[in-house]
Amino acid sequence: MLKKNILAITLCLILSACASEKPILNGVDGNAIPLAFAHFPDVPFPDKAYIDLNDTKALGSGENWIGSLTYTSPYEPSQIFDFYMSEMPKFKWIEVATVRARVSHMTYIRNNRALQILIEDGSDTVVTITAIPNTNVIGR
Fold it and tell me: For 29, which DSSP code?
């Protein structure tokens, strides 16, 4: 009986170790970011952000990804707007233009890339971030 209990406990420990996955990563400034956002380390994300895999079309990862990333957040659009105004310079993005409106637009450049952030209100705030190559000299 003791051998069966030891075997059962060992099996449970092995299975729980295999099933456990690191749920969050530490971002810049020690902020917790969801694991799904780890492929986009050059962009800040608020906590409680949930990636929309149906609307996300991104190629590559790291600091060279291009495409469009969509996520939802329970925060108000104005809070998300303020978050990016505060956090983007920490990631060395240079502000090109911002428009705070029903659908807010924010444009940034850094090195050989440009980033546009659209913030829309809904049942949750919907944020779409589009990254494209930037061949202009500004921001280099």
Answer: G
Question: pTM here?
Answer: 0.73
How far is Cα 4 from Cα 6, in angstroms, rounded to an integer?
Answer: 5
Domain ranges in the chain are: 37-133
Query: In degrees rounded to 5, what are phi and psi of residue 85?
Result: -60, -35
- Distance of alpha carbon 43 from alpha carbon 40, whole angstroms: 6
Question: What is the mean pLDDT for each group of 10 consecutive residues in the chain (140 residues)?
Answer: 48 40 38 67 90 90 90 94 96 96 96 95 93 72
Rounded Cα–Cα distance for residues 41 and 138 (Å):
22
What fold is seen in the domain 37-133? TATA-Binding Protein (3.30.310)
Cα within 13 Å of Cα(81), Cβ side: 17
- Cα separation, 137 vs 132, whole angstroms: 15
pLDDT on residue 7: 44
